[in-house]
Amino acid sequence: MIEIPDPDSTSSVADWVELRISITGNRVSKATAASAIEGARGEEPPEAFLSSVWRELNHRQQLYLRPYFNVEDRIVEPQFETQPPPEYLACLLLSLFGVPGNTQLSAKLFEKLTCEAMGRYLSGHAIVFGWPSGVDDNAEDEKESVIKRKIKKLADELNERFCEAPAARFKDRGIDVIGWIPFSDRRPGQVVILLQCAAGHDWKNKLAVPLDAWLQYIHWARDPLKAYAVPCVVDERDWHEMSRDKGILFDRVRILNLLSDGIRDEALSEQLISWVTDQLSDLNE
Known about the structure:
By secondary structure, the chain is an alpha+beta fold. Helices cover 48% and strands 13% of the residues.
């Protein structure tokens, strides 16, 4: 059985319940959850803590567009007609365990997932902008050339005015996904969102998009918005502050709701299935 990584966290235990019912297809009772928590922390959890987990799951149930589970008084039941979608399982695994082993692969898959969600949200264009693999981090000239080309290409595509590139040490300068809604006349001045992804556990401490810096690189006709994507469900107590600090939030609920009719990128879907299978295999060893 997969252990709860943080048995003192309401959010972590709620994620564990979601993951368990998803991979087993079986209901989880409060007694089952209590036993798992006790095994992880060495003592039985108080009823008040279990009640907070159930309240959190009930809150999530109301937020999700798809019925992933159903919360009753003392049980949570799965609501999948078929296998749970890989994007749901991937977000749960990242939320529970952070970025494992192959950090770059995990992060890139989450960027691609967020990019597809961004495109749906805007009903416009979205691209993964993050730092590419294969670039020699020790070659300053190569890095500077790569980031300059990427930003200039972006400015050209959006018909905005390129000004300058950041220093090579900044790489992608905190931007993983860019989305925009172009006008048919292709003139500058449009809705643009610069988004940063944080797939790891340290997402609260990660710096937001450096919007002031991006105002130097491209002379936007209208300033872009900043956004932030995480695979977890952001706590309601943190929502307002995080929104003010990080920008428009794309948490697990929003990403999955935007992709509620499935991922259209078949290659991404296959990559997620493979990644989820590998992660679950590692956890069950």
